[in-house]
Every structure is written in structure tokens, then in C-alpha cells.
Predict the structure.
Amino acid sequence: MEDRGRHAAAARLLTRAGLTLATAFVVSLTAPVQALANPPDGGSCGSAGKWVVCEADDDTAASGSGSHHTGSGSGPSSKPVCTIAKMEPQPPPGSMFWEGKSSKDGAVYQRTCANGPEGAPISDTFVADTPPGAPPVDPAVVAQQAVAKMKLAGPDIASPRAAGSYIVGVPMWMWVNKGPTTYGPNTASASAGGVTVTATAKVTKIVWRMGDGATVTCNGPGTAYTASYGRQESPTCGHTYSRTSATQKGGKYAVAATSTWAIDWQVNGGGVNGQFTETRQSQTQVGIGELQVVR
């Protein structure tokens, strides 16, 4: 109780906390001053009239300087609910937020605690490699975020065309148009918790389900057909229907093309890397008729 009284006496020397973002510091009489760049994870903030007292779990008081802010809470026994986020964009070099440090030391984070009057948010900033108490960042998860930026889509089917005319027994050539979002390569980066990952995605194969029970796997975009090829089969990706589509719904076969994307990723500036795959699908319809002989 005597220590608590000494803390309260010291608190009365502080700047008033009438404004929402007012700065309040408590000088500990029983422990060395602790820099707010590495503030206590626990503790509580309580108000005594117009004054704010923030204490750590070990009964030592939190302290700080510069742009750091603390605020009042709901009572001496309550712990503030806080969230920590990386400042975006990061302050320019030499900013007061860096506290004499630089991006080589980590990043500037902003902590917001709902410990102001009536739960008003109060913020402070600090420099760290990762925010206190934050779990290690999984670069594979960051790589997924990079892939999300790519907006990968299913194959851009050039042939067979839904409006095309195809014949039983005549080889059909299948191919797709190549683009960054439909075939690759596609590259994007994402950052989280001080970790930046760059990912590159490209299609390695396309599996065609032709609607007649046949499945064709093509390890490439296929070869575009020209009249000079005549009735020969595609050298890379094709299929020959043996019966018409007259009995199918709408008189056409439902065709699905599923692409497999191989994604390679690596952490910028580090030796950590990996690979995973994703799939995307496109659909079309194809009508197959019989060649009619006119006599």
C-alpha cells in the first residue's frame, strides 16, 4: 500500500490527460525507467481524477517520451485491450517515429489501446523487428497473399469455340490464349510482420474434360490450328469425338478446362523459399455433328 501511495504521488506530477491523445508518464520509484519502445506486455491503466497511472504487472510503472501516448482505463485492476499494426506507409528516414533508428532495425508499429475516457482509443508507436507478442510470420501464408494479388483465372479457351462447327471423326485442336492472369508467368509481392515474399506463378498443365467421358491432359497451351494442317491431329493438344452431341443437353458437349498453376516463392533478402500449386477452371460448350454427303 505504501508503494501504491508513492506511485500515486508521482502521477500527480504528470501532464494532464484531458485530451484523448494526451501523453502521460509515470516515473517508477522502485525500478529503473523502462523505455516505451519496449513497453510492458501486461499491466493496467487506471484514472485518478484527471490523472492517469499506468502500471506493469510487477508494480513498476511504464514510462516513455517523444511521440508515445498512453491513456486512462476503466480502473486500476483492468488491463487495456490493445491491437498492434505496422504503420503503412512507413515514416520517411529521419522521422521522429524511428527514435534514431532505421528500417534496418525493423519497422515502426502503432499500438492502439481502448483505455481512454469511456474506452476511447489511445495510440503509441515503437520500433521493432516484429510487434511484441506477435506470432512468427509464416512466409508461406504471405506467399498466398501475393498470389491473391495476381487474380489468377481459368484458361482463356481459344478452341474449341462454343459457336464453332465440329464433325465426328475429324481431329479437334485445342489451345488457349496466353496471358498473365490466365497462363502466366505472373509475379507479385506481399508483406506482413516485416517479411516480404515474392511469388511467381505459371501454368504447367491443362486438363480437358471433353463431355463424352474422355479426359485429355496437355502440358502446354496447345497449338493454334491453320488450314494448312488439313485433317491431321494436333501435335500437342487435341481430341477426336466418335459420336455426335445431339443427345446432350442443348445439343452440345459441356467441356471443362482446368489449369494447374505452379507457384514458386521466396523471402526477399533471405534463403527461405517454397512451392505450391493452385487450380483454376473455365468452361465452354461444343457441338459435334455428322458430315452429310450430298448426292
Remarks:
- The first helix runs from residue 2 to 11.
- Residues 2-128 form one domain.
- The mean pLDDT is 76.
- The longest strand covers residues 195-209.
